[in-house]
Amino acid sequence: MTCKAPNGDYDESNFVDKNNPAIKYHHGTTTLGFKFKGGVIIAVDSRASMGSYIGSGTVKKIIEINPYLLGTMAGGAADCQFWERNLAMQCRLYELRNGERISVAAASKIICNWMYQYKNRFSVGSMIAGYDKEGPQLFYVDSGAMRLNSNYCFSVGSGSTYAYGVLDAGWKWDLTDDEAIKLGRKSIYHATHRDAYSGGYVNVYHIKQDGWVNISHDDCFQLYQQYYPKKSKAINDINDERKEDGDEDDDGDKTMSSK
Fold it and tell me: Which residues are catalytically annotated?
């Protein structure tokens, strides 16, 4: 005999870790960033979920800190948004006081120091990426106050293992801008295809010496049709046949015709 949650499918117990229900909500996402000779590519999905509940399919998981710095969201949406927007303020204050832009390393250190003060009280797994005097830079910071620098890539979230598989197969330092953009988009798409907690849209940014550029905002379903045209055609043909075989009754409902 199984015990049903007091409030059914929407009871709080369905969305939290049983070992630590006060903090650790089940959430999922896929974000990635990688460096190449042309700068840094940042690509993310747009689904916000809590367990089996999808809160939104159009979340902007890339925070624009300044024209040369980007931050990503993985973990708690509110936690990531608050601290990265606060970081944007601190970066602007640094620029006003010192007459030059803050380095990517210094920006990532600021948010890491905040995470250390409130260690493990939040749910944050963010990448801080940008272009400074040292060239393209990519850092990872989380709520445990871990701060890592990478000369290759990071992928964060429940779909990161799928994204890493595609990324590892196609990455090389001398990618062209177009190849790098396509690789980032394809990596996130395949993660959304296999990971139930990732989906929605694939957003891609390119950080260059003169700042970041918002490259694309693509629907995952349309990307599926692009990457798998034969399978998509078969599914579309079946749907078309069902539409042709369906007649509307007086209430406007579909009924099967008697052929």
Answer: 29
Instruction: Give backbone dihedrals phi and psi of 233, rounded to 5 degrees, phi first.
Output: -65, -40
Taking CA 229 as the corner, what is the angle to CA 155 and CA 169, rounded to the nearest 5 degrees? 30
The tokens of 97 are what?
A: 């006081």
- Whole-Å CA distances, 168 to 50, 52, 66, 100, 172: 29, 29, 29, 36, 9
Nearest to 156 by CA among 191, 126, 120: 126
Residue-level length of the chain: 259
Residue with tokens 């990688």: 34
User: CB–CB of 134/106 below 8 Å?
Assistant: no
Tens of pLDDT along the chain (259 residues) come to 455 555 666 676 666 656 655 545 566 899 999 999 999 999 999 998 877 778 888 999 999 999 999 999 998 888 999 999 999 999 999 999 999 999 999 999 999 999 999 998 888 999 999 999 999 999 999 999 999 999 999 999 999 999 999 999 999 999 999 999 999 999 999 999 999 889 999 999 999 999 999 999 999 989 998 888 877 676 666 667 666 666 544 444 454 444 4
Model pTM score: 0.81
Q: Which of 30, 89, 35, 92 is nearest to 208 (CA)?
A: 35
Amino acid making up residue 138: L
- CA 71/CA 85 separation, integer angstroms: 9
